[in-house]
Amino acid sequence: FQLKNFPFNHRYIGTISTSNHRCLDSMMGPDVSKGLNTKVLAQTCHKDGGNQIFLYTTSNKIYFDELCLEPADGKL
After folding, report:
1. How many domains does one find in the chain?
2. Is residue 46 part of a domain?
3. Which pick of 10, 39, 43, 65 has the fewest CB atoms within 10 Å?
């Protein structure tokens, strides 16, 4: 996780979690070049940051590093 790769128009940087302690997890580790068309899963929150740190922008988009999350079917 390197903050310099994130856009600066953010509302929130951190984990996205549920009430039962599941966090969005990119499952990618440090190599985001493997991230295109990769599923994001809900995993047990580990509080180590890294692949569970996301950015929510002022334009209502969610990013992991420089990758924007979007639904697989293209619908919101």
Report:
1. 1
2. yes
3. 39
Instruction: List per-residue pLDDT tens for the chain, 76 residues long.
Output: 455 555 568 889 999 999 999 999 988 755 556 656 677 889 999 988 788 999 898 889 898 877 788 877 766 5
| DSSP line for 25-36 | E---TT-GGG-T
Diameter over CA atoms, the chain: 31
pTM of the model: 0.72
The pair of structure tokens assigned to 38 is: 């990769």
Q: What is the pLDDT of residue 36?
A: 65
First-to-last alpha carbon distance for the chain, in angstroms, is 27
Beta bridge partners of 41: 25
26 lies in which domain range?
3-65
Q: How many CB atoms lie within 10 A of CB 71?
A: 7
